[in-house]
Bacterioferritin-associated ferredoxin
Amino acid sequence: MYVCSCFGVTEKQVKEHAEAGACTPRQIASASKAGTDCGSCVRHIQALLGRGNCPRRELLDRGAPALTAEVSEVPDLSEAA
Ligand code: FES
């Protein structure tokens, strides 16, 4: 079923983007353009995202940083200058 008829984005695609880390309608828009034309689908996208659909949101709810990356090796930048 289409969520965003302006860009032909389906409910399944929105859920896939959410599983890939998009937690907000803005992040869904960045990934798929959904919600960036008439905007009538934004509430539906927000409802689909809801609580519990976003692993990063669960991290935030627990007070953990959600946008971190593990860096195993820090490059030596002293030679770059
Ligand atoms: S239906 Fe999504 S931007 Fe128009």
